[in-house]
Amino acid sequence: MTTAIAPETVNLLKGIALFVFIAIFLGVVLRLLMRRREHDRRMARLPLDDTPTHRRRAERREDQS
Q1: What distance in Å separates the CA atoms of residue 19 and residue 4, rounded to the nearest whole number?
Q2: Would you state the pLDDT for residue 49?
Q3: What φ, ψ does residue 52 adopt, rounded to 5°?
Q4: Contact at 8 Å (CB) between 16 and 9?
Q5: What pLDDT does 54 receive?
Q6: Closest C-alpha to 41, from 16, 55, 60, 62
Q7: What is the DSSP string of 17-44?
Q8: How do the pLDDT tens digits run along the chain, 65 residues long?
Q9: Mapping DSSP to helix (H, G, I), strand (E, B) and coil, where does residue 15 land?
Q10: What is the per-residue pLDDT for 40?
């Protein structure tokens, strides 16, 4: 004997899945819009930057103070 899922249950699950998808999508978009541009620039330069990590950290500390 097979048990079928009621159409109302399927529709409810579809609605929940859609809500979760939209919430995650909006969260990702907001996170991208709210992040610092300096971080993006630094990450873009990272593959090309030959400066040792400890020197970059020291330079950033000097810039912040």
Answers
A1: 24
A2: 64
A3: -60, 150
A4: no
A5: 66
A6: 60
A7: HHHHHHHHHHHHHHHHHHS-HHHHHHHH
A8: 567 888 899 999 999 999 999 999 999 999 988 888 888 888 887 767 666 666 667 777 777 76
A9: helix
A10: 81
Q: Are 57 and 50 in contact (CB under 8 A)?
A: no
Q: Which two tokens stand for residue 46?
A: 């990272």
Burial call 5-30: b when 16+ CB within 10 Å, e when fewer? eeeeeeeeeeeeeeeeeeeeeeeeee
- Residue 5 token pair: 């899922």
What tokens appear for 8 in the block?
Answer: 């109302």
Residue with tokens 């969260």: 27
